[in-house]
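Hey, I was hoping to borrow your eyes for a little while. I'm sending you its amino acid sequence along with the backbone structure tokens. Take your time with it, there's no hurry, and the full record follows here.
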Amino acid sequence: MDVFVVRKLGVPGNEELAMGAIASDNIIVLNEDVVRSFHISKQVIDAVAARELRELERRESIYRGKRPKQSISGSTVILIDDGLATGATMSAAASAVKTKNPIKIVIAVPTGALDTCRSFEGKVDEIICVSMPEPFYGVGAWYEDFGQTTDEEVCELLDKAANFQSKLQ
């Protein structure tokens, strides 16, 4: 298990709405419909992307610690998120992971918008979405507790996974 950090590029003034996302290796995926609908300029996109890239790099440094990035070439990669609303962050993740030559990419989420989940068909090898309620409302609507996961919690879970993996070897 490894960490792959992706950050949403929120629409200024409506940050929960993704105009796109940025992933490791500075891969940016834009939701052209949102960009067009809100008349978002390249300068605004660049400013939001620069801010989110700084946060992405900060988190990746904290989460990874001294552990090197794992090679995923020739591996099956399972990308996991809390859900798919617009799909922007997952699209960025999948695009970035594809550049690393995995043998298979699987997306696994507990909930997602039906159209968004379907939009990944043909873009990845498999998509697993447990619940696609209609109307969707948003990812957080389908959780009893949608509190933020802290950096400390992420680090603890990654440490546990690394310790478990080292015991298997």
About this structure: The domain at 6-168 is CATH 3.40.50.2020 (Rossmann fold). The helical segments are 32-37, 42-64, 88-98, 114-119, 151-168. The chain has one domain: 6-168.
